[in-house]
Each structure stands twice: as C-alpha cells, then as structure tokens.
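Researcher: I'd like a candidate sequence for this fold, 233 residues long. If you have to choose between options at a position, lean toward the conservative one.
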C-alpha cells in the first residue's frame, strides 16, 4: 500500500509513453522521468534511509519496467527508421558472405577457437535479440565478452604467459560476432547507447560495448588484406 503512489506514477508514465509512439529521440524523456523519480523514492517510507547503491538498483529496475514493456519497445524499434534498417541489413549481408572465414584467418589459436567458452559466448550474445531493456542487452554483451577474457586468462595462467590483452581478445570476439545470430547489431548498439541511464553506462560494460562496435566496424570493412589467407583461398 505504501508503494501505491510510486506505482501510480510509473504506470501513468508507461501509459503516456505507449500513447506517444516513442522514438529514439525520446530517450531524454525516459532519463528525465527516472531522474525525477529519485526524490519520490527517497521520501517513500519503504525507501527511507536506503543507501545510494540500493536506490541505483531501484532505478535500474524502473528503467527495466519502462523499456521492457512490449509495446514501448516495439514502438521504439519500429520507429528507428530506414537508415538503421539499411545499416543492419548491410551488416547482415556482409556477415553472411564471410561465413567461410575460419579462426585461422583471424590468427586465432586452434586451442582457443575450439574452447567451449567460444560457443557459450556466442549463445550469450545471441540472447541480445530476446531481451528488451537496454541494461539486459548490455549484460549479454558484457557476459559474452567476459567469457572470452576469462578463457584467455585461464589459458595464459596454465602456460605461464602474460595476462590476456585487448589484442588477444578482439580477434576471438570478432569471430564470435561473425558467427552470432544477432540480426540488428547497429540498432541494438544505438538503442543501448541512448536508453541506458548515463550513470550506469560506464566501466567494464561500456568498454565491452565499444569492443562490440569495434568488432562490427572490422567486419564491415574486412577485405583480403584484413585476414591471413593463402594465395589460393
């Protein structure tokens, strides 16, 4: 009962957003609402005395409630426009044409390429198409990338080598993206970048989002000079 005023404000906002037929540009409207809800949460007796990290988690849950709404998400995606559809389609076409590439073409060690972590990383990244909220999509990228980094670091520890670097990680992550089933890569990256709350879009998660952007750019621009191939290939 104490949460009823908060629930009422949240549901009213979601309903208003649905009626607005939201677009990418409405990310500021969402951010402003989330910012405006901090004081009502703090003053509500259920949240009085809460720590800052608890309030951040509450705002994350609120962001998820708004943007995981089926109608809101469907509107945002369908309103992204033809330019984003064309970019996604062009990337998908390029990726399809590059399915012949093997790990060796990207100078990936065979022991790394056949490791179960690579397949699991791809499956985790594929889940980005199944979830709606930007934080959930970002978490798919983060977990996918961390699986690769963890595998590389474990392999380095076994061989008494230096810890994995970005130079070790990126070729494998490129291969994961190349084999993934995420069809709207550009749209997903833009959606995450705009709608994820700025205070929460940082650190490792932002780093791996940038790594995904780097992998996508590499695949888009890939030609025979970008990979290691024999003359007959």
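Model: Candidate sequence:
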């Amino acid at each position: 009962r104490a949460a009823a005023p908060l629930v009422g404000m949240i549901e009213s906002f979601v309903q208003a957003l649905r009626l607005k037929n939201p677009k990418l540009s409405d990310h500021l409207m969402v951010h402003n609402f989330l910012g405006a809800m901090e004081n009502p949460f703090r003053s509500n007796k259920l949240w009085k005395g809460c720590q800052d990290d608890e309030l951040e988690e509450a705002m994350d849950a609120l962001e998820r409630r708004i943007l995981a709404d089926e109608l809101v998400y469907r509107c945002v995606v369908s309103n992204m426009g033809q330019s984003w559809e064309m970019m996604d389609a062009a990337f998908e076409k390029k990726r399809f044409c590059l399915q012949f590439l093997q790990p060796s073409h990207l100078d990936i060690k065979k022991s790394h390429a056949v490791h179960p972590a690579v397949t699991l990383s791809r499956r985790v990244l594929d889940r980005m198409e199944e979830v709606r909220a930007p934080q959930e999509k970002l978490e798919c990228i983060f977990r996918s990338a961390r699986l690769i980094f963890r595998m590389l670091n474990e392999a380095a520890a076994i061989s008494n080598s230096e810890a994995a670097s970005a130079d070790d990680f990126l070729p494998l992550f490129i291969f994961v993206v190349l084999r993934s089933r995420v069809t709207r890569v550009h749209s997903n990256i833009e959606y995450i970048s705009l709608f994820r709350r700025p205070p929460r879009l940082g650190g490792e998660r932002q780093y791996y989002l940038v790594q995904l952007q780097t992998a996508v750019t590499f695949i888009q621009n890939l030609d025979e000079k970008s990979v290691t191939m024999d003359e007959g290939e």
